[in-house]
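Cross-posted from the bioinformatics board.
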Amino acid sequence: MTLSHVKIVGSGLIGTSIGLGLALKGVGVTMSDSDSRAAGLAQDLIKSPTSAPIDLVIFATPIGALNSVLDSEFLANPKAGFIDIGSVKSKVKVEVSTSKLDSKRFLPTHPMAGREVGGAESARADLFQGRPWIIDAQGVDADVVEAGVELIELLGGHKIDLDSASHDKAVALVSHLPQLVASLLAKQLSGAEQGWLDLAGAGLRDTTRIAGSDSKLWREIITANSKALSPLLKSLQGDLTALIASLEDEEVVSDFIEAGQKGRARIPGKHGGKAREYTYLPIVIEDKPGQLAALFDECADASVNVEDLTIEHSPGQFTGLITLALSKADAVTLAEHLRSNGWSVHSPRS
Amino acid sequence: MTLSHVKIVGSGLIGTSIGLGLALKGVGVTMSDSDSRAAGLAQDLIKSPTSAPIDLVIFATPIGALNSVLDSEFLANPKAGFIDIGSVKSKVKVEVSTSKLDSKRFLPTHPMAGREVGGAESARADLFQGRPWIIDAQGVDADVVEAGVELIELLGGHKIDLDSASHDKAVALVSHLPQLVASLLAKQLSGAEQGWLDLAGAGLRDTTRIAGSDSKLWREIITANSKALSPLLKSLQGDLTALIASLEDEEVVSDFIEAGQKGRARIPGKHGGKAREYTYLPIVIEDKPGQLAALFDECADASVNVEDLTIEHSPGQFTGLITLALSKADAVTLAEHLRSNGWSVHSPRS
């Protein structure tokens, strides 16, 4: 099958980004939305008109709005394939099973495309480039699966097969649980004296960064996936209760921290491989324009590949600490190179 | 007073770094340690011999080792001032009050100097440059306070006055609690399927980053500060229990996430000012050497100041998403500049 006309129901960031990406590949795109202004803006951005019959309908609405469009879209396009892009899959399958739409014509999918939010005006054709895009092809007609896979390929996504129940458990663990834990921690800062918060370092900033996320988006994801989240939160609650009871016991606290180290080590590094062992190289720079550029010029000169980095600032001061994550060999090379060029390089650590 | 000879008891990272920094400023330094190899290495690194009488003794041992050195150091140097550098202050004050050392001659301090660990060989003279260094001068003789302040100034630290009880509550909140929460979250990853962890994004990586920290160091800090930590953990436990009970209630979940946003917004930005409103500019780059350098060259060309950044990789793919945090004006300038030079810039978001 070759997609010639795709209808996208829902003209927010994801729907419009899909439309933009498809238009670039010459696929005809029709945008729609319950908000006609949003649909009009999206269609204006995308253009790509066509009179070909609709091959594929993509539901890009919030999960809660799905049941209001499933029946009408199926009745209007009885020959088309259907897919969705929701963050929680089991609930979507239930919605479809109680609609007029035949489950065999519906492919549940989830593009894991960054954390940007904000409507059609924020959409980008390259939003899915290199991002994982999960599909659950179980029991779905081959032509619909094929259309979904073609869509993912056209948009540069990275297809991953996962059944809906596993998907929901996986995202509960790697995405929804961290979200709630970050909010939980950040909430504890509410009553504190400002002077105390001025002492915050990179640790507090990193652990609470995602607590700033959109509450409208997340309340829907959390409630829709409460079944997969609940056992995880209860497990965390059990561990927390045990910790509180033994907070003065060095053995228990030590075992607890080591259990966390082991869990942390299971998170894969770059490129989805096993967690890589990076070497961390701390460098003190002056906090002014051009310093980062100069530093990365040195990295390029030394032909090393920076895998990750953090920037840390001290309160009231104008120097910054950059920590680069590198392979062990690159760290040695770069440290020598930087030192010989007068940079303030600290000892690498692993 | 001008420091002429400082004795440092404890030749680990902090003690040796203090010694290196003081030696650079011409102060005589004597290193000691219960491990004579460590003391020898530190003294070799530092040199800076002197025959002047000891003005100041710095306790740079783990808190648990303090009571074995307080009496002997006081008896050997009855005219000197004394300070310590421990991460928890109330417990140290109790140790001193039950020793022969007069509390008026002892200044409790805490240099908040990064997260590097690893003995004398990791020490750097510039470790304290621009870092907050807390002192509790209450009831301490003026000459001892003066010596402590001179020490901090010589090492380039940023002196902050805070009584010990407040200090312990502050670091419990901004440092020890995030540490335990990160371990708590990371511990939940232990039993998960590897395929699920392959879907992890920057959110999980950031929230668990500090869970990799040293358990020997942290078990001592946590148990020593259990009194300040306990109410914080119980408050978190209460919030968690309430959340679990209402996980399907959109109103409750939404309020919870908004409470987290408010807490998060209280963390100050760079330079200890009020939390700054950054604009975030996402840029897709090829994941190969030289790309970051090229990007920061563009930042320098456009004369913008990068306040913070994150790097995100997709599993199995060789493109990366860089998100730069900038002032709003700089984000607009840079986005235009990069686009006109062919970079793949996404829409900025705040």
